[in-house]
Specification:
129 residues, mainly beta, 1 helix, 10 strands, elongated
């Protein structure tokens, strides 16, 4: 009985800190490319975070450039607003994170394959409230 009494507050605290991951939280991501010069390609990324609390979406935009002939190592894209960030890893995986304030303030994370040019949906996989 004593174990249950001590465990219940810990369980309740963990449940209270639990986020809303997996309940329709995702980003609609679109990437497009353009030529800056013969050696440099620019990329634009638009990520729209959608959920019940944000039916019109939270729009974030990022950009970065890559030099032809060099392997992609790791890119921190320049993004606005600053509550959103995107990283592109060498294997083509894209990591996203965003600070949202509805239903509670939390930092949400997701990752998925970076679209060449086109659209992909990336689900929120974890969060910190």
């Amino acid at each position: 009985m004593r174990f249950i009494t001590l465990s219940f507050p810990l369980f309740a605290a963990a449940a209270a800190a639990q986020s809303f991951v997996g309940i329709g939280l995702s980003w609609n991501v679109t990437r497009s490319s353009y030529i800056i010069s013969q050696q440099v390609t620019g990329y634009d990324l638009t990520a729209v975070f959608v959920s019940e609390e944000y039916p019109d979406g939270l729009v974030s935009k990022c950009m970065w450039a890559e030099k032809a002939g060099l392997p992609l190592t790791h890119v921190h894209a320049s993004c606005v607003p600053d509550t959103f960030s995107a990283e592109v890893l060498a294997n083509g995986t894209m990591k996203l994170q965003q600070l949202i304030d509805k239903p509670v303030e939390q930092l949400v994370f997701g990752q998925g394959d970076l679209p060449r040019d086109g659209h992909v949906v990336i689900d929120v996989s974890s969060s910190i409230a």
